[in-house]
Specification:
homodimer; about 725 residues; mainly alpha; 21 helices; globular
Chain lengths: ~725, ~725
């Protein structure tokens, strides 16, 4: 059975080398005119500088956490944390690199070939580097951790169960392989949090700042070279939408994969499953992920090797995704069937497998279906082909107040449908495969993550290419191609968000089960053991935790929005200053000072990201040491439920405002086109929605996962040592 | 002991007769000039017409519910429901009546006397009618229900425990006095829901409609007689802020009072408390409420009988409130001490009374303190004396997008502090007096409700008086007095909101405990019985319920906002039409058609209120019959937690936007006064915030209570008969 891990190794090698090949092949292409080179270089330098600064800060914080983990929990946990952090940081960095190379080459391809299909190929090749790296590095890290600390895989159950790890401070504390795995997941999460939050603040501060003065006051179009904030805006796409997205989805992928593995280990520790069965439960997610990655390599290669791509961009991308997903679905069917074939039927029943060896596969299908349906629901609420967004555009005729009101209403109403789908997935995957099924569903969603990330990254690359084309004054035909690519990117992004929030919710819930395992007493094996896993919200301490937990995502979101607004206002002031002081900017006679704007965005975001991130990491731990594990359990469930709603609300209202503006620009509202007062109102909606959908929404996805992961790591200590139990309360 | 009920009867008689006296004394005052009479009559006619229509619809829905309750549960429950509905409807109606009499008389007092103190007295006298009626009718209804169905009070435990009631359809179903009480609470809730939602949509549709065209397009001030929507706006204050508020707080008061009583009955049914102790547990909340009401009569009389009121309006009102609260605090101390004095110490320990006979009093103090602190926090986040609102005003310099963004951020961040206070109250009141303590805390907050409602009602009366003064062109001195009264009303409203959300949360949680009692099996008296009360959120069905429940307040809020926006847009179109078609409106030469605007608001709100209200009532019941009691338990906790956050968020961001605008108008932002672009931006914020703070926020308070009440009523059926258990899932 362990030999199946070779599939994982193969997948990693295949993915990373294909990524390297694509990287070099993109880099070898022509950059175009001098003006284009100049702009691309400015973007590249800005992005590099930001990531360097950011990684310095994150490196320090990460080192502190690693040392704390090593000292308090076990050195293995600390090392695994570092491996996770390095994997996540590398994926983000590679993605940012390739995006800053690909953007100008996409523009140049559009300029030279004038062919939509060929240009799509360049953009997608760039995106594929990111997609393959995300999944490849994630799996690579897992493989290292498993081989390094799981050691002889035949005895992996001994590692979970027997081989005891010790921290330095609490020698009585005994932890096992679970902690090491959690440490790895936490490493990925921490980087993802900082990348998402830092990048999210950067990109939206620049974007809002550029729009607020450029569009609203000076009435110059987006990406106009006369706008001093425009390069910062393009840098933002690379550090926020690319690097942020990359480490975000790497973290989701790892979370989905390991939540099942960790749960298996916990069940083994509690002697619910035997070592033999654990072996299967542990290997299945890893190999499933490996098979999915191979599927993605095939899907991506299909698109890149195809002779001639049609003009139907969305369809071409869909085919690549569907090939990847198809391989994952068929592969997981075979894996589920064969891996669990010889497992003891009774043992499977005990952990809730109702359909025998098919159970994990059916659960995974529930997950995949849920991701797609939630994506479709997001599209319904945010695309201007449907009523909700059209209504927002219509409301803009009456001024910006009604644009905002209508958008808020749409976002709020949009919470119900995806949540019902999610509830069905939870109930269904649990019904067929118990708690393990929920993590299978999460992994199902993310098994073809390399393909979805490739598609998601191609979007901002095309967006950037459009910016470069505009700034280099490349003419309408070029812009038409990049615009077309960009608009498809917006649709795929909506679907990507469905996967992100759905998988985050499922992974977090699965982690919470492990959390409960970690501090509960003996399992009552006479009755259904799952009934022993209790988080009783009517217990006052848990209830209080749930209330405070539910307020946390609000506070976190509010702080992020405020951070964006603060940085954006500084940007506005700077842009206004330049318009006033540098004569001839608006006539194109003088060049604006792009660099100062980039610095404002960098400094603003690096300064503002720290407090909310540290709060997110610290609150579960600190409150655990004061109030104990029941309270933190409440925090986790409260925060998860509350964050899911807020994330959907923010994502959908933001997306709907964005597209309502585009609908007006495309002439959808009769008599109120570009430049009308209705258009101005819709720009206000778009500006308000920007930080909601691109900073707050994605950060909330990470928040719930990082909170459950860090609680899982810390609970072994604070369930024993906390102020409340010391005081005898 | 039962003789103490005479205190309640005395309080009711005292309060209602004092209210009648004040009503007549206000009505006897002079109305002023012919123009004033004319305007006041138009407002009165509009308000009367709306309430009549609304009560027709509510009457039909209420009758249907009453019949269903009578047939399915017991005739007693049906009758109690009707009594509750009549009490709530009457309170709303009386409040609306007196407000439409008092408004013009306040304006006239300002005109004739030019004295702030004297005018305050008139306004407060009007408000006091509402305050006294709310508490008086609530207690009157409870008294009727207790005397009618509780019968011989010495045997009240037999009624809870022994005397069995039957429905017609499920003859096996056995219910007791608990159901009757729940039916009464439900009657109050249903009316409150419709009054709040219907009135909330009415008032904000008119307000937004008037502002959107008047302030933003035609640049005429608020309450200008040239604005056709202005009378509708003033009608709205009376049906939304007065009638809606009245039945809302009546419902809160009843909920807080009965949640403890119902819990006591359930504990008696489960044989946790003896009949003797139940007697005390049952009487304590009623008599506490009665004493509180007597305190309010004293507090109100103090203000009204005082020879000369100072110009410090806020201080005068505070003294009245503090006298009322002081009597309630001292009275409840004595009640707690003497009523529980002879109770068996062991029996008190079993229900979690850690401080013996002082326990309920300490819990009540926790509640009172919490209400005040939450109010102070709301004030911090929404008053322009503090940083958050000043920041919003400052952000308005950069345009409306940043006004909105900053307001959203403020609202989100503002959730944490009040929730922590609430958590402390829950933990503290539970620690001293168990689950019963939580309901004591809720009742503590609302024990002097008559005083707070009097103060809360005086606000919209003064607001209306200002409107009438403006429309009758009464001159600046008059307007200065009404403005002063109005602005104090805004501050007191913020504190009132703290009490509303806090008490709603506590009452709902207390009801949920009773809900768990109603379908759980036997209590394990060997260990702590409270540990048997389990709502396990890790149970998949409960978890799914919690997710769907958390989405419910969002959907409900979104629908309300959309309803307001829809009605407001119709109003905007009508106002524009009149400006275009009726020549000479803006020059004051022609009279606008006020009546059509009133009709638009009426029809819009009556049409739009039905769906969200029916959804709120139906979802817990319908899903209970499909998925059973565990799922509904999840819905209740999910909805409660989620609604608390949304209500705080909506209330505070709305309030902050409102005051940011006022701050700019008062010249707080240097160089950006009234009429500047910053002011325009702040008006956008105010308009967006209006439905959030005045329609959504208060409606959410009711939502969580009505859901827990209706679930409590229906659970006796659906815990036995539901699709999932029939299918064996």
């Amino acid at each position: 059975m362990e030999l199946l891990l070779l599939i994982v190794a193969l997948a990693v090698i295949l993915a990373v080398s294909y990524a390297a090949f694509n990287f070099l092949s993109v880099k070898r292409m022509e950059e175009g005119t001098d003006r284009m080179k100049e702009i691309a270089e400015a973007i590249r330098i800005g992005a590099n500088a930001f990531i360097r600064y950011e990684y310095k800060i994150v490196g320090i914080i990460g080192a502190v956490i690693a040392v704390i983990l090593g000292v308090l929990i076990s050195w293995q946990t600390g090392v695994a944390f570092v491996i996770g952090a390095v994997m996540s940081a590398t994926a983000g960095w590679v993605g940012m690199k390739i995006a800053t190379y690909a953007n100008v080459r996409v523009a140049n391809s559009a300029r030279e070939t004038g062919d939509l299909g060929k240009t799509l190929k360049v953009a997608f090749k760039g995106g594929s580097v990111m997609g393959l790296c995300v999944a490849g590095f994630a799996l690579f890290g897992v493989l290292i951790v498993v081989l390094l600390f799981g050691m002889a895989l035949g005895q992996i159950s001994d590692v979970a169960n027997g081989t005891v790890q010790h921290g330095l401070i609490f020698p009585a504390l005994e932890t096992g392989f679970t902690m090491t795995l959690s440490g790895y997941a936490l490493g990925c999460s921490v980087i993802a949090l900082f990348n998402r939050v830092g990048g999210g603040i950067y990109t939206k501060a620049a974007d809002m700042g550029a729009d607020l003065v450029g569009k609203t006051e000076a009435h110059i179009p987006e990406d106009d070279p006369r706008n001093p904030a425009t390069i910062a805006d393009n840098v933002g796409d690379n550090v926020g939408d690319v690097a942020g997205l990359g480490s975000d989805l790497l973290e989701s992928f790892v979370g989905a994969m390991l939540s099942g593995v960790i749960l298996g280990c916990e069940m083994c520790v509690k002697q619910i499953v035997s070592g033999e069965l654990l072996n299967i439960l542990l290997l299945f997610p890893l190999i499933f992920a490996g098979v999915g990655l191979i599927g993605c390599v095939i899907g991506i290669a299909y698109l890149l090797l195809k002779k001639k791509l049609s003009d139907q961009v969305h369809r071409e991308l869909n085919i690549a995704t569907w090939i990847s997903a198809g391989v994952a679905i068929v592969g997981s069917f075979l894996l589920s069937f064969f891996m669990f074939q010889n497992a003891d039927a009774e043992a499977l029943k005990v952990i809730g497998f109702k359909l025998g060896n098919f159970s994990p596969w059916v659960a995974a299908i529930f997950g995949i279906a849920t991701g797609i349906i939630i994506g479709m629901i997001s599209e319904y609420y945010t695309s201007y082909d449907f009523k909700p967004t059209k209504n927002i555009a219509g409301a803009s005729k009456e001024g910006s107040a009604l644009t905002i009101t209508q958008g808020l209403a749409t976002g709020m109403i949009s919470c119900m449908a995806p949540v019902i789908v999610l509830a069905v997935a939870i109930f269904g995957s649990f019904a067929v495969a118990g708690m393990y099924g929920i993590s299978c569903a999460a992994l199902g969603m993310l098994s073809f993550v390399a393909a979805t990330v490739s598609v998601d990254t191609y979007g901002p690359i095309s967006d950037n290419a459009g910016g470069i084309a505009e700034m280099s004054e490349l003419g309408k035909e070029v812009r038409a191609i990049t615009d077309k690519l960009d608009s498809v990117g917006n649709t795929t992004a909506a679907i990507g968000k469905g996967f992100a929030i759905g998988s985050a919710a499922l992974a977090a819930l699965s982690m919470m089960t492990s959390y409960l395992f970690a501090f509960m007493g003996d399992i009552n094996m006479v009755q259904n053991w799952m009934d022993s896993l209790v988080l009783n919200v009517m217990q006052p301490l848990t209830l209080c935790g749930a209330l405070v937990g539910a307020a946390l995502p609000y506070m976190f979101s509010g702080m992020l929005i405020e951070a964006v607004a603060k940085a954006a206002r500084k940007m506005v002031e700077e842009v206004r200053r330049q318009f006033n002081e540098i004569k001839g900017i608006l006539t194109g006679e003088a060049k604006p000072d792009y660099k100062t704007c980039i610095e404002i965005s960098s400094q603003g975001s690096l300064k503002e990201m720290r407090v909310p991130c540290i709060i997110a990491i610290a609150i579960p731990v600190v409150s655990g040491f004061i109030f104990g594990a029941q309270f933190v359990g409440g925090i986790l469930i409260g925060a998860t439920v509350s964050a899911i709603m807020l994330a959907i609300f923010c994502g959908n209202s933001g997306g709907a405002w964005d597209n309502a503006k585009k609908y007006i620009e495309s002439g959808g509202v009769e008599g109120h086109g570009k430049g009308s007062s209705a258009h101005d109102a819709s720009v206000v909606g778009d500006t308000v929605g920007d930080p909601l959908k691109d900073t707050v929404g994605p950060s909330l996805d990470i928040l719930i996962k990082i909170m459950s992961t860090i609680s899982l790591v810390a609970v072994v200590i604070f369930s024993e040592y906390n102020l409340f139990s010391l005081l005898g309360l």
